[in-house]
Structures are given as structure tokens and as C-alpha cells.
Write a structure and sequence with these properties.
CATH superfamily: P-loop containing nucleotide triphosphate hydrolases
CATH architecture: 3-Layer(aba) Sandwich
Strand order of the largest sheet: 6-7-8-3-9-10
Helix content: 25-40%
Strand content: 25-35%
Structural class: alpha/beta
CATH topology: Rossmann fold
Order of helices and strands: EEEHEEHEHHHEHEEE
Oligomer: single chain
Distance between the termini: 25 Å
Number of strands: 10
Number of helices: 6
Length: 230
């Protein structure tokens, strides 16, 4: 990796074992993502988009090839160090929020801080409240996630992804379950993170190149297009 890259994939393939024939998800993908870049990964269902995100975050392991994020070879880590690395380096936003339903919104933000331990204990509550304010739901910290609308839950999930101030935010269809107004709010928040120096990688069906610095298109597990905004 060079100093301007945050992510590098080198000839990465992923095949899922099944009871029948193995199912290929990605084939010989090489990709470099610069620090501070706003990247969209697009393609039809089954093209390998979510598999690519799962490899970058260390959730899945490649069948072949190597992956570096922030200078760390992700899949060279054992499970314990990998979980700690993920908590410090990557904030993940899911389509269906994945907030813990029995914890308040504020507690959902405090939990990743407690797990990683990089934010001093005396600063965690104030940081969580500030993040809720940043995403526009400052008054909802004491509520359970189920009391929030879908758009509010997604903004809470984005605040949680920022809890440990990771350099990388990855989002898998973050607006796919939202109405147009809330989708616009979440998109604006992601764009603001890029302006403040975060690297953001989004899997999306919304092919709007003007929103992103770069759009990578996958088809059948291979990169078929890599376009940068002029």
C-alpha cells in the first residue's frame, strides 16, 4: 500500500462452499481505495457487492488473494485481534439497522466504545450524545430503537458506526429501506463525513455518479467498470 491508500485488494476471490457445487461470489478482484474517498459499489443482486464489503470488514475470508485496510493485512489476524481491529478501524451501517432492541439508543452507542476502549470512560457519554446530535436525533437517546422511525433508526446506526471515530465507514444499502426524505438525510450525512476526512464505501442500487467520487460496478463477481467523477 502507498500512503494515500486506505484499502487495497490484490487478486481477491471468494467462493462459498455448498452441499453441491461451490458458489463463486468474487473472482480475481483488485482494487485500491484512497483515504478520504467516497466510493459506491453498484451492480445487480448477486453481483458480489455485499461479499466485497464483508471481505473488507473481515466478516468473510477470501478464498484467494490478500486485503489490506489501513496498512493491516486483515485476514492475517486471528479472531480476537480481528474483532478489536474492526471495532477501531471500521464503522458498519446495515440496511436493516441491526441496533440491539433491548438497549436504549444511547446504550447502543456506548457499547462499541466499551468493547474497544479507545475512548476514555469519562468521555463516552458526552461523545455519544454529541454523535446523536450530529445525526439529528439528540432527543432520542433514552428511547428503545423500536420507538424510532426507520429513518431515525438508520441515523442512530450511523452514529453508532462513528462511536470509536474509525477512519472507514462502510454501508450496505443504507437507504434501501427508507423513504425518499430519510434516504436523502442519510445520504447527506454520509457525504458530510467524507468532507470531514472519512473514507466511505457504500453498496447501493442507486446509480447516481454525481453523489460519489467514484463508482465501481460489479457483475458476476468481477469489476466491469470503475468510473471517477470528473
Amino acid at each position: 500500500m502507498n500512503a494515500t491508500e486506505l484499502i487495497r485488494l490484490d487478486a481477491v476471490s471468494l467462493t462459498y462452499p455448498t452441499a453441491g457445487l461451490p458458489v463463486p461470489a468474487l473472482s480475481n478482484v483488485s482494487l485500491a481505495v484512497g483515504a478520504g474517498e467516497y466510493l459506491a459499489i453498484v451492480g445487480r443482486s448477486g453481483s458480489g457487492k455485499s461479499s466485497l464489503l464483508n471481505l473488507i470488514t473481515g466478516i468473510d475470508h477470501p478464498t484467494a488473494g490478500r486485503i489490506w485496510v489501513g496498512g493491516t493485512e486483515v485476514h492475517g489476524l486471528n479472531e480476537g485481534p480481528l474483532a478489536l481491529w474492526r471495532g477501531r478501524t471500521v464503522g458498519i451501517v446495515f440496511q436493516f439497522f441491526q441496533l440491539i432492541p433491548t438497549l436504549t439508543v444511547l446504550e447502543n452507542l456506548l457499547l462499541p466504545m466499551e468493547f474497544v476502549g479507545t475512548i476514555p470512560k469519562k468521555e463516552r457519554r458526552d461523545r455519544a450524545l454529541a454523535l446523536l446530535d450530529q445525526v439529528g436525533i439528540a432527543g432520542h437517546g433514552r428511547k428503545l430503537p423500536g420507538a424510532l422511525s426507520g429513518g431515525e433508526q438508520q441515523r442512530a446506526a450511523l452514529a453508532r458506526a462513528l462511536a470509536n471515530d474509525p477512519p472507514l465507514i462502510v454501508a450496505d444499502e443504507p437507504t434501501g429501506n427508507l423513504d425518499s426524505r430519510n434516504a436523502g438525510l442519510v445520504s447527506d450525512l454520509l457525504a458530510a463525513l467524507v468532507k470531514n476526512g472519512k473514507t466511505v464505501v457504500v453498496v447501493t442500487h442507486e446509480h447516481e455518479p454525481k453523489l460519489y467520487d467514484r463508482v465501481v460496478t460489479l457483475a458476476d463477481g468481477v469489476v466491469v467498470s470503475d468510473q471517477r467523477r470528473v
